[in-house]
Amino acid sequence: MKTAVVTGAARGIGRAIAVALAKDGYAVAAVARSGADNENAASLIKELSAYSPSSFYISADISSDADRRRIVDAVIEKSGKIDVLVNNAGIAPKERRDILQMSEESMDALLETNLKGTFFLTQYAANKMIDGGFGTAIINITSMSAYTSSVSRGEYCISKAGLSMVTTLFADRLAQYGIGVYEVRPGIIETDMTAVVKDKYTAMIDGGLLPISRMGKPDDVAKAVTMLADGALGYSTGEVINVDGGFHIRRL
Q: Are 71 and 5 a contacting pair, CB within 8 Å?
């Protein structure tokens, strides 16, 4: 059975990805910071088990080196391998502040999880994949914020732009081992993270912001991930898959 690790899996995009992979027959190691008794985690475990009884949950924080190692070691001990790593875990600023007032504390927190945590989890997992002769894909979930300026949450944009380069670097380094590395770049997706600005985004979409005139759903992102996980782009690596309603198209 194929094994997939999905970080940030308790809700939103990560949950949709974890469930989609379970439906595809993967044993999913769903990783999130909350404990297994958390309401979101408990319902996720139940849902995953219905599709893939070999799936399991790991409570961990990818900003911790010890937790990153524990995630990878636990999955390999339980499943014998990691076929696919989906780096979805990420945090938003606690408070949206103009970059002229943004705090160093906020910058540190976002880089620690979104960029540094993802990089070193990937590094540790990649070395295990190489040593064990397993692993087929690493998929990083970034954001249209990787290239779109949002001056009220600059630290988030910077963390996602950095993660785009992480994708490129590992795609280059791991190609010789048959491990494809990809970036899935969501646009405006209807999740808890965007709920606080949903009215703003809805008005912008109604005003013509997107060629596909709606907010995205977590399942839209999950479909792109399952395509990549299943090897649909086997002669590609380092690719960016935009799941953004066409936002990236430059229009006059």
A: yes
- Return the SS3 of 109: helix
pLDDT in tens, 230-251: 999 999 999 999 999 999 999 9
Both ends of the chain: CA-CA distance in Å? 49
Pick the catalytic residue from 26, 57, 156, 182: 156
CA distance 91 to 130: 29
Q: What are the tens digits of pLDDT across the range 155-171?
A: 999 999 999 999 999 99
What is the Cα gyration radius of the chain? 17
Dihedral over alpha carbons 192, 193, 195, 196 (to 10 degrees)? 140
Q: How far is CA 46 from CA 11, 56, 211, in A?
A: 13, 10, 37
Active site residue 156: yes
Q: In sequence order, what are the residues at sequence separation of 6 or more whose Cβ sits closer than 8 angstroms to the Cβ of residue 196?
A: none
pTM to 2 decimal places = 0.96
What beta strand segments (E) does 150-222 contain?
180-186
Q: How far apart are CA 153 and CA 234, in angstroms?
A: 35
Q: What are phi and psi of 131, to 5 degrees?
A: -65, -35
